[in-house]
Amino acid sequence: MKKIAHISDIHIGSPYFVDEWGRYVIKKVNEEKPEILVVTGDITDDGVLEMYEEAKKYLDEINVDKKILVPGNHDSRHAGYVIFEKFFGSRYPFYEDSKVAIFGIDSSQPDLNTGHIGREHYEEIKEKLSNPEKFNILALHHHLIPVPRTGRERQIPLDAGDVLELCTSSNIKMVLSGHRHLRWWWNLDGTYFITGGTATTKKLNGISYPSFNIIEIYKDKVSIREINVRDKKSREILGFERK
Ligand SMILES: [Fe+2]
Ligand SMILES: [Fe+2]
Question: Given a cut of 90, is residue 143 above it in pLDDT?
Fold first, then answer.
């Protein structure tokens, strides 16, 4: 079994950040002992150096060997994408072992909230996530399919249609994203699109709650549990057979 924690939109430095929730996320992920942590962006609230320093300290408290981090629109403000690379390495991180392959891509654009992947990355995405023996995961900040109950649709990547086609016509089994601050999933032609909620902030849509996901990949099936950071309850939100 391969266990992955997926957290998103922690917004370090935001006035909406709740310290108690932040502490709980660290504690709970450490208890779960995943092998891999995926953070799908908006790690900082405004992309400035001080916030990156704080975010680095925060994420260092999570005891996971492999961390795959991508920037969100908030991280790329104020040329924060440059600072991102200083603290967290490539904006296009790649990890693979005998069971999974995870490719993170930067869907942010400096000082814009709208996402964009870019044709120049399509071949690399296909190539890195091509092995049918592995569970292939693409990670990016922006949602590729609209998320209900999050208001008017905007900021979806400008080339979302092309990337959706790429995902559903390749060996990509799961796409992890964030940005909308509401946990949701879609299944499109056998590819699962998982949007993580905000794990640590009060910037919530309607009556919802902060959350993050634990993904368990077995030989024959995959299960996703949501951890509600407010009431600390855990429940399975999705389970499916691997074909
Ligand atoms: Fe966000
Ligand atoms: Fe965002």
Answer: yes
Query: What does each C-alpha distance from 50 to 17, 85, 188 come to in angstroms?
Result: 15, 15, 40
Q: Determine the Cα–Cα distance for residues 67 and 51; give it in Å rounded to an integer.
A: 19
Domains of the chain, residue spans: 2-241
Q: Which ligand is nearest to the CA of 115?
A: 2
Cα 197 to chain centroid, rounded: 9
Comparing C-alpha atoms, which of 25, 39, 33 is closest to residue 232?
Answer: 25
3-state helix, strand, coil in the chain (%, to 5): 25, 30, 45
> What pTM was computed for the model?
0.98
**Cα 186 to averaged position of ligand 2 atoms, centre (Å):** 19
CA of 11 to the centre of ligand 2 (A): 9
| Fold of the domain built from segment(s) 2-241 | Purple Acid Phosphatase; chain A, domain 2 (3.60.21)
For 82-108, how does the pLDDT look when each residue is reduced to its tens digit (9 = 90+)?
999 999 999 999 999 999 999 999 999
pLDDT at 42: 98
| Tokens 């592995």, located at residue | 134
Ligand nearest the Cα of residue 205 is: 1
